[in-house]
Amino acid sequence: MNYKLTPANFELRWNLFGWPKRISDQLEALEAKLAGRTNDFLDEMRDEQDGFIEKLKGIQSKVDNLHTFTNIERVEQVASFVREIKKDLIKCADEARTFNNREALFDVEVSERALIKTRIVAMNRIPRKNATDGYIHY
Amino acid sequence: MAIYTLWQKQHLAIRADLEKSFPATINLGLFTLSSAKVRALMLDKHSEIAKKLMDMVARVTIDYTNFAIDEYEQILGRLRQDPKDIEQIDDLKGYMITAPNLVLNLNLQVSPIYIISLANFNFSYTIILNSSRTVSATSTRWNP
Asked: CA–CA separation, A136 vs A131, rounded Å?
């Protein structure tokens, strides 16, 4: 008694048997591809870090210039400027965290970014007017 | 599924026995009794049951094959993803570590089905442990 398989089912079986090899080939190809992509991303991150350092320098100079504001009548204007700096610093702290995480993933030395933290702490110490009670808090 | 192939073989054995032992005519002295119609009916019945059992084995094998191919396609799809950042590369590397085990598990799920059905199809094959498989065919016909 013979049982004839349809050509489609016959192909299906060979198709199945070929899959482990396809997966194995893809794993090898992916390994090579990922090595290249990792280098690309590392270069990208280094470029971004250069931009980030420039940005930090900009914030630093803004902070350094704060002492030039001496006119009490411009206090509101200065306060909003300070709030903006603080927002930028918090954003920078997030970016720094991302960079540090990525450095760990790239398996390169993790950069020290204590400066940003120090700046944020310093900004928190600036006296500010409370919106609800109207008093200045130190 | 092994039980179905066993039943199927039993039906073929019964059919072969009937073919030998069940005469088409029986002599009763002056009379001759024709049992050809009953004989043919019983032989056909066992052939039909055996064929239906084979159909079922084939159907289950095809279902399992389709299931396994879908799973393999999902694995390949994941391995073909283009990472957009280092975090995705890290995820992909993690998945690459698990992929050989996924393939091995699929092999373990599908192999028993194929050992049963391929044995019936007179196939010989070897599983190579590094997740690739080579198969050599001797026939596309089922010859019990």
From this structure: 9
A2 belongs to a structural domain: no
Considering CB atoms only, which of B65, B93, B133 is closest to A12? Answer: B65
Number of domains comprising chain A: 1
Contact A112, A96 (CB under 8 A): no
| Among the listed residues A3, A14, A7, A22, the one whose alpha carbon sits nearest the alpha carbon of residue B125 | A14
Q: What is the residue range of B81's domain?
A: 2-142
Mean pLDDT, to the nearest integer, of B98-108? 89
How many domains is chain B built from? Answer: 1
pLDDT tens per residue, range B38-60: 999 999 999 999 888 888 888 88
Check A2 against B142: CB less than 8 A apart: yes
B72 → closest Cβ in A19, A30, A38: A19
Structure tokens belonging to residue A114: 């204590």
Nearest CA in chain B to A17: B133
Please give the residue range of the domain that contains residue A21.
7-131
Q: Is B76–A23 a contact, with Cβ atoms under 8 angstroms apart? A: yes
Measure CB to CB from residue B69 to each of A15, A30, A34 and give the nearest one: A15
Distance of alpha carbon B132 from its chain centroid, rounded?
Answer: 20
User: pTM of the full predicted structure?
Assistant: 0.68
Q: According to the model, what pLDDT value does residue B144 have?
A: 31
